[in-house]
Amino acid sequence: MMYFISYDVASPKRLVKVAKTLENFGIRIQYSFFECEMEKSKLEELKCRLLELIDKKEDSLRIYPLCEDCLKQTSSIGEGNIFVPQTFQIL
Question: What's the predicted TM-score (pTM) here?
Answer without folding.
Answer: 0.80
